[in-house]
Design a protein that fits this description.
The chain is α/β, with parallel strands linked by helices. It has nine helices and seven strands. The protein is globular.
């Protein structure tokens, strides 16, 4: 039986999941939990690489009417396959060793993003849940809620071209869906946090939440 803990950070693009996952990993290490693993989805594995190519418009489908991004069903299957590789190669072995795994995104992203890019946002959910049903569940999911307009400002301040899901109308719908994350992952422990606050204030709130669910021998970070 797993003796580790699995923590996931979720939110729309620009909510700060990548920054906060890194800060949490670093704080856990400072707290003496050296057996802490930072990871992300899409992963750096072969399927994750395909997904990143698709997100960055470097992998397209030669469909009638011209080249386009893979459709939502293909993306959903790629994400689910990448997640199972992630489980097999990193998450489950780390948890079995008693490590704390901190992931920037996980299955909640698939349920939110792929359902809202489908032609039936509600009807797609049972299938999306089914293809992800063998993935280990997180011990804690931290949802970073943020107004979509503020997240857009943050994304525009970053370097690089927008990815395929970084569309204002879609991000606004995603922000609403994340507010109801519990309905997508019933039974999961989900805590919502205000991502509009400063990086430092949000990091402190995340740490306070994490201390409540981690083993009692976790000491306060210096």
């Amino acid at each position: 039986m797993s003796s580790g803990r699995f923590i996931v950070l979720e939110g729309i693009d620009g909510s700060g999941t990548t920054t906060q996952a890194r800060l949490l990993h670093e704080r856990l290490q400072r707290a003496g939990r050296l057996r802490t693993r930072a990871t992300c989805e899409p992963t750096t594995g072969p399927i994750g690489a395909l997904i990143r190519h698709a997100l960055q418009r470097r992998m397209v489908v030669n469909a009638e009417g011209g080249a386009r991004a893979p459709d939502w069903k293909t993306m959903a299957l790629l994400f689910a396959a990448d997640r199972m590789d992630h489980n097999d190669a990193l998450i489950l072995p780390a948890l079995a060793r008693g490590e704390i795994v901190v992931s920037d995104r996980y299955s909640l992203s698939s349920l939110a993003y792929q359902s809202l890019t489908s032609d039936d946002p509600i009807g797609a959910l049972p299938w999306l849940s089914a293809i992800n049903s063998r993935a280990v569940r997180p011990d804690l999911t931290l949802v970073l809620d943020i107004d979509a307009a503020l997240a857009t400002k943050r994304r525009l301040a970053r370097a690089g071209e927008p990815e395929i899901f970084e569309v204002d109308a879609l991000q606004a719908r995603l922000a609403e869906r994340y507010l109801r994350a519990e309905s997508l992952c019933p039974g999961d422990v989900i805590v919502h946090l205000d991502a509009a606050q400063s990086v430092e204030a949000l990091s402190a709130q995340i740490w306070a939440v994490v201390q409540k669910v981690l083993p009692s021998d976790l000491s306060e970070a210096q």
